[in-house]
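Pilot study result, target chain (368 residues):
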Amino acid sequence: MNNVNGVNTSNDVTTLNPAEMSQQDFIAAVYLERGEMLDAEVRRIIGEMDTSNQYIDTINTLIGKANVAEYGTTNYSAPTWSTNGNNVILDNGYGLNFQPDGNGGTTFTILDADGNQLIYQNQTLIPVPQGATVDALEVGIPVMSDMSFILDDGTEITFGTGTPDTPFNSTDFSGGLADITTITIKRGNQGMTISNIDSATPTIGAPNLNGLAIDASDNDGYILLEAGGMHAWEYNGSGTGSITETNPNDPADQVSGYFARKLAFEQDLTNEFSGSIPFMTQKEIDLLTEELRISFSDASGTGNLTQEEWVALKDSLINARDNLNGNNQLQTVQLQRAMQTYNQNYEAMSNSQQKIYSLLRDIISNVK
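Predicted structure:
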């Protein structure tokens, strides 16, 4: 139960008795109660948006798995990729561009068909939405050890790294960043290698049909999945921007942002991503069946969908994501209106209090 100037609230029901209150207290209590209602509305909308975003993150992961199932096992009779000077042209609108960074090394950009980018510079991979400007410390993915980025069409891009300039210091989260030295690109039996990335003149190899051998010879390291564009990536089922890690200096503290991503990727990891058919976790199954009410075929009954079952499910996943994104836009408008009304309520309360104080001051002045 809350008590504001003698006004008790319980079970969302407020009883105001003007006879027991001054006019000033009565007006303030009305505005405060309205403020509590508006605050609850704002929190409700934010909660719904947060839930919706979590659903979208999971759906994007599932779409990535569906694409891996559909395209990852493809066997080609001839390469479908090509090179043109400092450019690599991949399938489905993806491409890479390499440029000197001015410091004796190379910077590169990976683009998708919509113009979203993943930019490598200063030992950091920076996801950038089409036409946007971002802060590298807010969204950047630190390069500290080998990593593989799995595109929506199942293409696997692996970044091989050198030794960090300075070891990672877990006390202040400094150091640990490394240069990307090689890039291998694989999809099915198609592959290619770009080497000497840490120099101003990288060597761009020709696409070939040795993808399986290339994949077997490199370390895939940490696995990140494209989540709807080159500007959005997921690791372990969460968007990279949402990664949190326990502070090694204070177990009760959770670290977020760029430092959390450094903690997540600072250890060398020997790992091999399998381009075989992905499986669906129980959490993902529960989301589809219990929350989103999406029906799908699973002959195994354990989440081990076949390639055909993943492909059949993908359209439903894309439609669900589009609907959730549309709802998010409406919720954003609702939140803006609720916040505006919330602020207007307290501005009105402040104005009314000022008028009352001004009136009292004038009365006292006249009495004198």
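One observation from the pilot: The CA atoms of residues 119 and 251 lie 33 Å apart. A full batch analysis is planned for the follow-on phase.
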